[in-house]
Write a structure and sequence with these properties.
Length: 396
């Protein structure tokens, strides 16, 4: 019975994450909004405070933050393999689309498709809905609201991955100074099924691969080994999420003649239009260079560091959360995260989605459906796409 329950839990995680993988358009900020709607508001798999702590921890780690949050939730629900199936469900739909696009890219173009613009408007509505909910919970007092506003202002003026890390670090220091008297001694604990020994081992594997893979790639003439080395390094060392990873990959591939600039940009455009993590751009690039084998190699390589980092971090999170000083740090970090998401709501979400009054009107309707009538996010995607075509054919 216990084994049957475990299998059913894994299947539930897979199905839930697959629905998110099919409907989570709009990039990492929107993904966090979709996760909150599904995992917290609907499934009640974890509470807002635990979710905020996971986001804060993942913000500190290199790699795709939204994917790492999804992996973490899967691990909390179903252990290590829960994280694996959570990642598979969330990632597989966009991998398949981008691999097919790579195979057909010479004749397949979606640059001016109406549904792409509609999905951007959907993302704007979802992000605004999530921001209001997260802001109320994570910045409930004047000091934390001030920290959120300050973080947003800094990120708007200096939009950089390194500045984001500095903002988070500064907010953590400010929280440690200001909020220790607000620490909660009755926090809900969560079970990961991961030991501290597993965490230390995972970190050791990450370090060993970073050292060994370049040596192995240089010693062999295998293109898949070289591909694995490139994408593993990118996944392990890039801070700031999907958009930041693109220029780093471009410098690794285009100047070396592994891919043309036109091929690279075509895949980048398509990656903006699919649901799920932007890191699945690696699936397109791998296919362009080495076919299906290249797609599998590049996809596993770029996401593997996230699994190793999350496995290293989660076993220590429960113990740390019970300490007043660590809670205070996370309070500051969570307030900064609200500000960072607020800045991202303006740039890139609003700047790249709301271009005229028709877009604004559609976004307003979708936001009302989410916020007032509690329509699920997947339905908002369908209604937003239909609304976009209706406005287009009506001449707006």
């Amino acid at each position: 019975m216990k084994e049957k329950h475990r299998i059913m839990t894994l299947l539930e995680i897979l199905w839930t994450s697959l629905k998110l993988g099919l409907t989570s358009f709009g990039g990492p900020v929107a993904h966090l909004a979709y996760f909150k709607d599904e995992y917290i508001d609907r499934k009640n798999w974890l509470n807002d405070r635990t979710y905020a702590d996971l986001i804060a921890v993942c913000q500190f780690l290199p790699g795709p933050a939204s994917s790492q949050v999804g992996i973490s939730i899967g691990m909390l629900r179903g252990g290590f393999f829960g994280g694996v199936v959570s990642w598979l469900g969330f990632t597989l739909p966009s991998v398949i689309v981008l691999v097919v696009f790579a195979l057909l890219y010479q004749t397949f173009s979606l640059e001016d498709a109406v549904f792409i613009q509609s999905l951007k408007v959907v993302a704007a509505a979802v992000v605004l809905h999530a921001l209001l909910g997260m802001g109320a919970k994570l910045a409930p007092d004047g000091m934390r609201r001030a920290m959120a506003v300050a973080a947003a202002v800094v990120m708007l003026l200096f939009p950089s991955a390194w500045v984001q890390l500095l903002v988070i670090a500064a907010a953590g220091i400010a929280g440690w100074t200001l909020f220790q008297n607000k620490a909660d001694s009755n926090l809900e604990t969560f079970e990961t099924g991961l030991s501290k020994k597993a965490g230390v081992t995972s970190l050791g594997i990450l370090a060993a691969l970073l050292v060994m893979l370049p040596v192995l790639a240089g010693a062999t003439d295998n293109p898949l080994v070289r591909l694995f080395d490139i994408f593993f390094r990118v996944g392990a060392l890039v801070f700031g999420g999907g958009h930041v990873v693109l220029p780093m990959i471009e410098r690794e591939l285009v100047p070396q003649g592994l891919l043309s600039a036109d091929q690279f940009l075509a895949g980048y455009g398509m990656a903006q239009a699919v649901p799920g993590p932007l890191f699945t751009f690696s699936s397109y690039l791998g296919t362009m260079m080495q076919g299906i084998g290249g797609a599998v190699t590049a996809t596993i390589a770029i996401f593997l560091p996230s699994f190793l980092l999350i496995t290293a971090a989660l076993p220590f999170l429960n113990e740390l959360r019970r300490r007043a000083s660590f809670q205070a740090v996370l309070m500051g970090v969570n307030a900064a995260v609200v500000g960072i998401l607020l800045a991202a709501f303006y740039d890139p979400v609003v700047q790249r989605s709301i271009f005229d009054t028709a877009d604004f009107a559609l976004g307003l309707v979708l936001f009302a459906l989410l916020n007032v009538w509690k329509v699920p996010a997947w339905m908002i995607v369908l209604l937003g796409t239909a609304g976009g075509y209706l406005l287009h054919f009506s001449g707006f």
